[in-house]
TrEMBL record:
Calcium among keywords: yes
Source organism of the structure: Lentimicrobium saccharophilum
One MF term in the entry's GO annotations: metal ion binding
Name assigned to this protein: P-type Ca(2+) transporter
Record's keyword terms, sorted: ATP-binding, Calcium, Calcium transport, Ion transport, Magnesium, Membrane, Metal-binding, Nucleotide-binding, Transmembrane, Transmembrane helix, Transport
Length: 958
C-alpha cells in the first residue's frame, strides 16, 4: 500500500524568510480617531455647551468691566472637568483592546521541522502546515492538503453557514464563492478535520480585506446601565427643577429686593430675551420634562422636531420669536432701538450669572460620572479578571456574574485537571499483557492510532506534550509507553470516512484501509454501553466469543471504575468485506461490530475546586454538574467536590434521556432539586438552562464544544473554556482561560464587587447632590451672596463626578461579598439602607452648612474669609464622607486595605491639595482668600468627625 505523504512543514529559517517576505498573520488595526477629535466630542453634551456659551457672553461683559477672573475660571474648570473625564475614559477603553490581542494568541497545531507543535495564530506564516479540528477557526487563507468529512461555516465571508470542503477534484463545487479545497481565515470548522497549507496571511487574507472596525466593547448597554439611566433621569429632573427655581429665586429677588429699579419697558425686554432664549434651548429642557413624564409612569414620545431637529432650527425659532415679540412690543412703546428700553450691562451681567448658576446646578446634579464609573469599573474588572484567567468578551457578563444564582458546570477540565491517563486497559485479547505484533494486537494499535484526532508533540522527548482531545491523547500516550509510534501507523493507513467524537453521539468511528490487516476496517470507540450495544461478538485470547457471555463481567468492571470517578471507554471493530455503507447521516448503520475491551482513564479533581465550590455554596449559589459521563463517575466527582451528599438520592440526579422524556411541567419541578445531569447532550443542557431561567434563576453555564453554543447563548452568562472550540468561545460571554471552576468563583466575586463599587459611587454622589443643590437653592433665596459660586460648584462637580468615580470604581474586590446571598436581578441599585444613608447624611450636611452660613452672616452679609471657610468646610465634609463611601457594605473600617487602594489614596490627595491651592491662590477666580494655618487645621480636624462617626457606627455594627 502507498505510504501517505509525510508532512515536515517549514524549518525555522524558512519561517523567518516567509515572515520577511509575506509578513505576519496580523490584521492592521483600523485607524483610530485622533485624540483631539475624541476630546472635542466631549463637548457635544448640550448642557456643557450652554455653559460655554453663557461663559462666552459673560466674557463679553467682562471686557466692559475688565474683570476676567471668574469667567476665565469657569472656562478652566470646564476644560479640566472634561479633560479628566476624557482621560479616564480613554484609559478604560484602552484596556478593552486586550480582547483582540488574546484572539491573536490562540494556539494552533502546526507542523514545523517535521514535528507537530502549537504556535499562536499571529506567528503562522505563508507555507505553514496547520492541522485543524472541529470547532476551530481557520487562522489564515490556505489550500487544503487533507479534508475528512470537512464542513465549514463561511457565514462571516459569504453568508453560507455550511459548505462542504474536499480535496477530491471530482467533488468540487463549481459555483462556490471560494474554491472547495480552500479554507479562509475567520471561517469555522463545523465538522470533520483537515490539514491546511497557508497561502495568505494577515491583511492579504479575504477576511483581512473585508474586516471591519473591531467592535467597540464599551458601548454595550448592560442591565445595570439601563437601571442607572433611569436613576440619572430622576436626578436630572430634580436638578433641573431646582435649577429653574433657583434662577427664579435669584431673579425675583434682584427684581423686587435689589437696588436696581426696572421700568416696565425694561422688564418687557428682559421677558422677551428670556422667552426667546428658552425657545432656543428647547432641545435641552423639553427632553427633561419628558423624562419626568416617564418617571411618573406616563411615558410620551418626544416630538421628532426636538429629538432629531437641528439646533439651527431652534435658533431660528428663537430669533423669530424675538423679532415678533420685539415688533409687538414696539406697538406698546418698547423701542428696541432706544437705549432706555435696555437694561444696563451690569444687570445683564447679573442675569447671565444667575443663568450660569442655574446651568451649573444642572451640571452638578447630572451624574455624568455614573456611566463613566460603570465603564471604568467594567474596564478595571475586565483587566483584573484577565489576570485571574477570565477573558471577558461581553461587558455585561462582568456584572451579571455577580447576580448569578445557579452555575451549571461541565465536569471534564472544569472540575477535573484534564490530565488524563490510562489507568487500566482491559482488552480481552490482550489480557493484561504487552502489545506485540500479533494480528489481534495490531487491531488495538490501529484502533487507537487511527480512530483519533489527537496528536503528541515530540519536540521535547523527555516531556511529550499532548495536543487535541485529551481522552484520545491519553490513549496515544499509553501506546507510546509501550514503544509504539501512533503517527507511523496513522500515516500509513488511509481514512475513507470518519465520524469524529461528539457529545451527542458519544462515540467516534473511522472507516479505513488498513495496511496492517490489508483490509477495510471500521473502528469504533466511545461510551461503553453504546459501543457494547452495537456488538454481537467479543474478541478474546481464545478467538471470537458471544458478547452476551461477557456482559456481566464488563458491567462489573465498569461500575468499579466509575465509582472511582474514572472515565470509561469501549472499543470495537469490524472487518468490512462487503460494499454496504456503514455511515448514514452521521449515524452508524449496518454494522456488525466485535467488542475489543474497555479502558479506564483517570482524571483527578482539581485541587482548588472543592474550596471554590464551597465558596459558591456559601454565597447562595447552586452548583449543578452537567456531564456526558456516566451516573457513577459523575456522582463520585460530585462527592469529591462537595455537592453530592450521602442524603442525596435519585431526585437529585437525572440522565439526559430521562430528562428529555419529562414534560416541561415535570422537568420544571425536577430541575429545582437537581444536582447532577449525566449522560447529557448539548440539547439537554440548553433545556436545563431555559427551565432554570423560567424558575427565575440567573444562570451561568459552561461549555466547550461547538454544540454547546445554543446553551451558552441562552444562559445569562455563557462561560467557554480556553481549550474549547472557537465556536463555543464566540457564543460565550466569558472565556475561562485555565478552564477551571475556581475562575468562575472569582468572576462571581468580581461581579458582586463591581456592583458594590458602583453603589458606593452613587452613595457618595447623591449625598453631595442633596447637600449642594439644597444649599445653593436656599442660599439664593435667603442669602445675600451665593453660598457657592459657579467655579466652586464646578470644582465640587469635578471632585464627585470624575475623581470619586475613579477612586470608588477602582476599589479592589471584597471577599466579603461572597458571604451574601445573590442579589435579585430586579433589585434597584439604591437599597433602602443606602437611601436612608444618603438622605440622613445629606440633610445633616445641609443643616450644618446652613447653620454655619447663619453663624457667619452679619446682617445678611458674609465676609470673603468666611465664605472661603464655608467653601472649604463643604468640600472637606464630602472629602471625609468619601472614606465612608469606600467602607460602605464592606463591614470593615475605612482604613482597612487603604494601602492597597492606591487609586483611592491618590484621588484623596489630589482633592486635599487641590482645595488648599484653590483657597490659597484661587483669588477672584474662586472667590476665595487665604485661610490661616489654624483655620485649616480646625476645619480639616473638625470635619473629620464625619469619618469618625462612620467608624463608630461600623464598629457597633460589626
Ligand atoms: P463534560 O461534559 O463534563 O466535559 P465529559 O467530557 O465526560 O463531560 P463527553 O465528552 O460527552 O462528556 O463524554 C461522554 C462519554 O463519551 C465519555 O464518558 C466517554 O465514554 C466517551 N468519550 C469521551 N471522549 C471520547 C472520544 N474522544 N472518543 C470516543 N468516546 C469518547
Amino acid at each position: 500500500m502507498e505510504h501517505k505523504k509525510h508532512y515536515t512543514g517549514l524549518s525555522n529559517e524558512q519561517v523567518l524568510e516567509s515572515r520577511n517576505k509575506y509578513g505576519e498573520n496580523i490584521l492592521t488595526p483600523p485607524e483610530r480617531e485622533p485624540l483631539w477629535k475624541l476630546f472635542l466630542e466631549k463637548f457635544e453634551d448640550p448642557i456643557i455647551r450652554i455653559l460655554l456659551i453663557a461663559a462666552f457672553l459673560s466674557l463679553g461683559i467682562s471686557f466692559v468691566h475688565m474683570e476676567f477672573a471668574e469667567t476665565i475660571g469657569i472656562f478652566c474648570a470646564i476644560l479640566l472637568a472634561t479633560g479628566v473625564a476624557f482621560w479616564f475614559e480613554m484609559d478604560a477603553n484602552k484596556k478593552f483592546d486586550v480582547l483582540n490581542k488574546v484572539n491573536d494568541d490562540t494556539l494552533y497545531k502546526v507542523i514545523r521541522n517535521g514535528n507537530i507543535c502549537e504556535i499562536p495564530k499571529k506567528e503562522i506564516v505563508v507555507g505553514d502546515i496547520v492541522i485543524l479540528g472541529t470547532g476551530e477557526e481557520v487562522p489564515a487563507d490556505g489550500e487544503l492538503l487533507e479534508a475528512v468529512s470537512l464542513q465549514i461555516d463561511e457565514s462571516c465571508l459569504t453568508g453560507e453557514p455550511i459548505i462542504d470542503k474536499t480535496t477530491n477534484p471530482a467533488n468540487f463545487h463549481s459555483d462556490a464563492t471560494y474554491p472547495s479545497n480552500w479554507a479562509m481565515r475567520g471561517t469555522k470548522l463545523m465538522d470533520g478535520h483537515g490539514i491546511l497549507e497557508i497561502k495568505k496571511v494577515g491583511d492579504e487574507t479575504e477576511f483581512g480585506k473585508v474586516a471591519e472596525k473591531a467592535t467597540e466593547m464599551s458601548g454595550e448597554e448592560t442591565p445595570l446601565n439601563k437601571q442607572l439611566d433611569k436613576l440619572a433621569k430622576f436626578i436630572g429632573v430634580v436638578g433641573f427643577a431646582l435649577a429653574v427655581l433657583t434662577f427664579l429665586a435669584l431673579f425675583v429677588k434682584d427684581l423686587f429686593l435689589g437696588e436696581a429699579q426696572y421700568t416696565i419697558i425694561q422688564l418687557g425686554s428682559i421677558g422677551i430675551v428670556i422667552l426667546s432664549a428658552s425657545i432656543v434651548l428647547t432641545k435641552v429642557w423639553l427632553p427633561i420634562i419628558y423624562d419626568s413624564f416617564e418617571l411618573l409612569g406616563n411615558e410620551k414620545e418626544l416630538p421628532k422636531s426636538v429629538e432629531e431637529g437641528s439646533w439651527f432650527r431652534w435658533i431660528l425659532y428663537g430669533i423669530g420669536t424675538f423679532v415678533i415679540l420685539a415688533a409687538a412690543g414696539y406697538l406698546f412703546g418698547i423701542n428696541p432701538l432706544n437705549s432706555e428700553s435696555w437694561v444696563s450691562l451690569d444687570v445683564a451681567g447679573r442675569i447671565l450669572q444667575y443663568f450660569m448658576v442655574a446651568v451649573t446646578l444642572i451640571v452638578v446634579a447630572v451624574p455624568e460620572g455614573l456611566p463613566m464609573s460603570v465603564t471604568l469599573s467594567l474596564a478595571l474588572s475586565m483587566r483584573r479578571m484577565l489576570q485571574n484567567n477570565n477573558l471577558v468578551r461581553k461587558m455585561h457578563a462582568c456584572e451579571t456574574m455577580g447576580a448569578t444564582t445557579v452555575i451549571c458546570t461541565d465536569k471534564t477540565g472544569t472540575l477535573t485537571q484534564n490530565q488524563m491517563q490510562v489507568y487500566k486497559a482491559d482488552f480481552f485479547c490482550l489480557n493484561g499483557g504487552k502489545l506485540s505484533n500479533d494480528e489481534n494486537h495490531n487491531i488495538i494499535k490501529e484502533s487507537i492510532s487511527v480512530n483519533s484526532t489527537a496528536y503528541l508533540d515530540y519536540s521535547e522527548p523527555s516531556k511529550i506534550k499532548t495536543l487535541g482531545n485529551p481522552t484520545e491523547a491519553a490513549l496515544l500516550l499509553w501506546l507510546h509507553e509501550q514503544g509504539i509510534n501512533y503517527l507511523d501507523i496513522r500515516e500509513d493507513s488511509e481514512v475513507i470516512e470518519q465520524l469524529t467524537f461528539s457529545t451527542e453521539r458519544k462515540f467516534m468511528a473511522s472507516l479505513i484501509n488498513s495496511p496492517l490487516l490489508s483490509k477495510k476496517v471500521l473502528y469504533v470507540k466511545g461510551a461503553p454501553e453504546i459501543v457494547l450495544s452495537k456488538c454481537g461478538k467479543i474478541l478474546t485470547e481464545q478467538g471470537l466469543k458471544d458478547a452476551k457471555e461477557y456482559n456481566s463481567i464488563i458491567e462489573n468492571s465498569l461500575t468499579q471504575y466509575q465509582n472511582q470517578a474514572m472515565r470509561t471507554l469501549g472499543f470495537a471493530y469490524e472487518i468490512i468485506e462487503d460494499n454496504i455503507d456503514r455511515f448514514e447521516n452521521g449515524k452508524l448503520v449496518n454494522s456488525n461490530l466485535v467488542f475489543l475491551g474497555v479502558t479506564a482513564i483517570s482524571d483527578p479533581v482539581r485541587l482548588d475546586v472543592p474550596s471554590a465550590v464551597t465558596k459558591c455554596l456559601n454565597a447562595g449559589i447552586e452548583v449543578k454538574i452537567v456531564t456526558g459521563d456516566t451516573p457513577g463517575t459523575a456522582k463520585e466527582i460530585g462527592r469529591q467536590i462537595g455537592i453530592w451528599n450521602d442524603s442525596d438520592n435519585f431526585h437529585n440526579i437525572i440522565t439526559g434521556i430521562e430528562f428529555e422524556n419529562l414534560s416541561d411541567e415535570e422537568a420544571l419541578k425536577r430541575v429545582q432539586h437537581l444536582k447532577i445531569m449525566c449522560r447529557a447532550r448539548p440539547t439537554d443542557k440548553q433545556r436545563l438552562v431555559q427551565l432554570l431561567q423560567r424558575n427565575g434563576s440567573v444562570v451561568a453555564v459552561t461549555g466547550d464544544g461547538t454544540n454547546d453554543a445554543p446553551a451558552l447563548n441562552f444562559a445569562h452568562v455563557g462561560l467557554s473554556m480556553g481549550s474549547g472550540t472557537s465556536v463555543a468561545k464566540e457564543a460565550s460571554d466569558i472565556t475561562l482561560l485555565d478552564d477551571s471552576f475556581s475562575s468562575i468563583t472569582t468572576a462571581v466575586m468580581w461581579g458582586r464587587s463591581l456592583y458594590q463599587n458602583i453603589q458606593r459611587f452613587i452613595l457618595f454622589q447623591l449625598t453631595i447632590n442633596v447637600a449642594a443643590l439644597i444649599i445653593v437653592f436656599l442660599g439664593s433665596i435667603f442669602g445675600h451672596e451665593l453660598p457657592l459660586t459657579v467655579t466652586q460648584m464646578l470644582w465640587v462637580n469635578l471632585i464627585m463626578d470624575t475623581f470619586a468615580a475613579g477612586a470608588l470604581a477602582s476599589l479592589p474586590p471584597n471577599l466579603r461579598v461572597m458571604d451574601n446571598k445573590p442579589r435579585k436581578n430586579e433589585d434597584f441599585i439604591i437599597t433602602p439602607s443606602m437611601r436612608f444613608n444618603i438622605l440622613f447624611v445629606g440633610f445633616s450636611f445641609v443643616i450644618i452648612l446652613l447653620g454655619l452660613l447663619f453663624y457667619f452672616s452679619n446682617n445678611g452679609e458674609v465676609s470673603r474669609y468666611d465664605l472661603s471657610r464655608f467653601f472649604t468646610i463643604f468640600v472637606m465634609l464630602q472629602f471625609w464622607n468619601m472614606f465612608n463611601a469606600k467602607a460602605f457594605a464592606s463591614g470593615k473600617s475605612a482604613f482597612h486595605g487603604l494601602n492597597k487602594s492606591i487609586g483611592f489614596l491618590i484621588v484623596a490627595f489630589v482633592i486635599l491639595v487641590g482645595q488648599i491651592l484653590i483657597v490659597e491662590f484661587g483669588g477672584e477666580v474662586f472667590r476665595t482668600v487665604p485661610l490661616t494655618l489654624k483655620d485649616w487645621a480646625v476645619i480639616i480636624g473638625s470635619t473629620s468627625f464625619v469619618l469618625w462617626l462612620g467608624e463608630i457606627i461600623r464598629a457597633i455594627k460589626r
